[in-house]
Amino acid sequence: MKELPFQIERFLVKQLACGRAPAAIAEDIQAQFLRPVDADQVRAYDPDADGSALNSDLRELYQRTRADILGEDEQEAEVRSFVAVATTDALADTSVHCVEKKGTAIVLIASGGEYTALSNRCTHKGGPLCEGELSDGSIECPWHGAEFDVRTGEPAGPPAVEGVETYEVRVEEETIEVKL
To answer: Does the pLDDT at position 132 exceed 90?
Structure first.
């Protein structure tokens, strides 16, 4: 199977999660991304089929989309829980940290005594946000300069047009926890 660009994979997985037919998805990809894709390639991304093309990020996107669009969130809410990721004394006042817990890569951001957590993967081309620069409430992807608001995950600057996932953060005594 030919590997598809990250942005097309995300589009394809979201469309599958919404129950669209593989042939219709392939037509949309050809029209929107000018990329020849057939229905068989689309079917390879269906987690109910083989699912070998789905890495953990794409599988999570599929589940999250089904929850958002189709209201399948009860099971997910039960599975998610707070996980310790760092201590407050281990982090500098304004800093960016890479954390991986439960198979999820996270960017943990400390700024002025507040903590936020985002997906580590840029929605433009999949760059590692934890290697990016933090400034004025946004983090910049080191690959192509896409910027994301650290509180909302929304794109703050091109080329990204889709936001990154944010995670709920809490501090219990001196332990920073993220809900995964």
So the answer is: yes
